[in-house]
Amino acid sequence: MLRRTWVWIAFVLVHAVVIWLGFVDDHAASWDVDQLYRWWAGLTLSGDMLPGITADWIYPPLAQVPIVLVGAFRAVDYTLGWGLLVTALDAAAFAVLVGRGRSRGRMIAAWFWLAAILALGGVGMFRLDGVTVPLAVAGSLWLVGRPWLGSVLLAVATWIKVWPAALLAAAVIAVRRRLAIVGGAAAVTAVVVLAVLLAGGGAHLLGFVGDQTSRGLQIEAPVSSAYMLLAIAGVPGARMFYDPDLITFQVTGPSIDTVIMLMTPVLMVGMVAIAAVGALKAWRGASFVTLFPPLSAALVLGFIVLNKVGSPQYMTWLIAPVVVGLAIDRRRWLRPAALTLVILAVTQLIFPIFYDWILVLTPAAVWLLVVRNVLLVALFVWVVVRLARVPVRQPTRLSVSE
Predict the structure, then answer these.
(1) Bridge-partner residues for 239, per DSSP?
(2) Beta-carbon count within 10 A of 49 CB
(3) Domain limits of the chain?
(4) Contact criterion met (CB below 8 Å) for 282 and 257
(5) Residue 391 in 3-state DSSP?
(6) What per-residue string of b and e applies to 363-395 under the rule 16 or more CB within 10 Å gives b?
(7) What is the pLDDT of residues 124-141, one digit of tens each?
(8) What are the C-alpha distances in Å from 114 to residues 119, 155, 304?
(9) What is the dihedral of CA 345, 109, 11, 83, to 10 degrees?
(10) What is residue 209's predicted lDDT score, i.e. its pLDDT?
């Protein structure tokens, strides 16, 4: 009882601090919410435009729900309202994780989650990703006991921000009640598609997919590290530039068009290969407990490491699979959890603290970004190796006398 009390007190304090971080330094950490989300909510509520319905949008259709929901409560400042919404969602998922506080693994996972939120800071809360993380955590924890509900939560999160599709894929592979997983996801997808079609937005339903595949290399992506180093070295043609359409900073340099063209198939091949290893393990009898944590982590990390986009909020994706890993097998996941916290803390240093220095190619700041990406690759390698070593059931051997 006492352990549960302390962890909930820490929950309140951590979220209060992170909400406060969204208001310091001219809203640097919460700029997207304070400016873009507020603007999108205003457009929708006024009927001027429905992003994702009357025009292509960079996010799936359900992303409109939290954005408009916060905007509808005009009595509360939009940025503060967003922080309170994420806090409420976190609290619901946190309650599922902690339960009665009797599981040591779940308590360690709960403390890790709080440390992760604090390490990443405001950018982890004040983005759509902050809404999807608690849905992903609760959905993952319910995959065995309540697979329909777990699948529904993961599918809803996927239609808000695509990354939880990695967890859904891992669930389809690792959970024995696959029909429940597929059924829950299919039901959510059918409702979303029907709602968009009835609203007249069929032409824009998958607009977010085309937008992602046509993007260049964002400066924070791991693959962009080479071009950032070329830029600070003064290599001709290597430089950073601002894309006003996507509101991001990208890199260019030698053979950039070829690299951009290759990244999407590299991502797809990498994800399929990871899923294939997981499927082979499941076919050979690996249990959910041993298979799901490394498989989900490998797919999520593959989505980050092999991606040509690499926004700082993407690091929040690491939280869900590590929380599940700690809850299920805390001893094996303690070291990757510690490395994850380092990655999150360095990411907060990168954005918003030293981001302006990166934009002017200050060598020390650029190298900080490179080190973070190297740590990401190291964590990716660890989970892939762990996935490859997942034990499977040995077939029963008949003796000669039998």
Answers:
(1) 252
(2) 14
(3) 2-388
(4) no
(5) coil
(6) eebbebbbebbebbeebbebbbebbeebeeeee
(7) 999 999 999 999 999 999
(8) 9, 24, 22
(9) 60
(10) 83
